[in-house]
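Example record

One chain of 229 residues, shown exactly as stored in the release files.
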Amino acid sequence: MKKILYIEDEPHLSRIVKDTLELKGYTVLHKTDGAKVMEAVNSFQPDICLLDVMLPNIDGFTLANHIRNVNPNLPIIFLTAKNQTEDLVKGFASGGTDYLKKPFSMEELLVRIENQLKLTSRETSAIQSLPDEVVLKQYRFYPGRFELHTPTQVIKLSNRESQILAMLCTHTNTTVDRRNILQIVWGDDSFFNSRNLDVYIRKLRGYFEGANGIEIVTLKGKGYHFVVS
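Predicted structure tokens for this chain:
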């Protein structure tokens, strides 16, 4: 039985969401105050978090950052009326893996929860197929810790950066299909997600800038060739 940590301070909405999720077979721990959430993350060990953004004492974006530091793999869905582009960007940058605008239907929320749980299962399998330390010439990648060690620094990778690099590492010196990355990391190959992938690939290239014998080559219309010579 999957466990959901649900943080929402609006009584009527939280009652509807909690009751519906429990009827669907989920175990739900509901909290109304963001300041008490980190203790719940450690003790309850949820499979997924649903976070309101506007919370007493600590906002959802700040809370997501704290959760991500403790559990880099935990899916986080923001449920919020804040729907400006900058809010979405801030939400994903803070560690969110999905963003659902209020008001929302329970049918859509359930689909998004199921999708995030499926994606997490695939991502975990991809990362678990790698050793604890992946040697990339003079670099060291630690997928379980979301860290890339260069000759001069330790780079703390984001959740998605680590997922994408893990997929590239499982296809070292071979081609990984672009659509395959999009389906596994984001769940679909929409135009918006495709543009996001371009951003992450550029960031990863930047981390390897100056590395001798390491290159992420774009194969137009196909995917990427991760060269480690």
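Notes: The chain has a mean pLDDT of 87.
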